[in-house]
Amino acid sequence: MILSMTGYGKATVTFADKKIHAEIRTLNSKTLDLLLRVPHLYHEREMEMRRLLTPLLVRGKAEVSVWTEDAPAKTAAHLNAAAIAAYSAQLQDVSTQCGLPYPTNPWNIIIRLPDTFTAQAEEELSAEEWDAVCQALRQAAARLEEFRRQEGEALQHKFEEKLSNIASLMQAIEPYEQQRTEKIRQRLEERLAEIKGVDYDRGRLEQELIFYIEKLDISEEKQRLANHLAYFRTTMAEGEGQGKKLGFIAQEMGREINTTGSKSNQAEMQNLVVRMKDELEQIKEQVLNVL
Fold it and tell me: Is the pTM of this model over 0.85?
């Protein structure tokens, strides 16, 4: 089963008093284009994250976000009791020395003064927390792959439909191909009959007719196209990582269809070729989304 490059996966891992969230979104791209958005605490491990995610994501434009939710008690601000006591004492001294009334609500003054809140000590990334981050990333990548698998299944059904349509259209050409031999003979004889007083060699006419028909023969194109259709199906059955290969096969299918069109000297045949091209174009558009 093929995989799509388009996908989404999210996971949450609880560590100590925080929740670690990991989210991955992917779109199609020729190579792996990885964009990481992580908290400052995890910046030092960014290269390790890339090494972890590269084999899991393989290819595509990937946007990876990691963020944390701390417990309320941990994120609350801390009052600096020593600084507040010192400010209160200074207000009392200034009030006494200057004969000014002591403020009725000193908090409105003290709370605006510097250092009344203590800065939270900078965290250090522990090995245990890093393991939790990796776990969240792996879980998000696993859910992303499941999403890609579902999208890939839908793509494969679409490809099967289009391949069958192309094969049916190629078969629909056969009756016109068989009829045109007689039409070519008839047209040549009519043109020769219009030339008065000229005799011609029937044997030579047959030779020229055979040569002309061989130039318009599409037997080889039909056989090669059938082989490409079968190879496309076989490649899809090989599983993930076949997107580029499927793109190359689609190009070869286009060559055979184009050659068939150049040899089609009937309007009915050319109409069928146009429809085959339309089916193939839809395959080419969707192949860009295959991992």
Answer: no
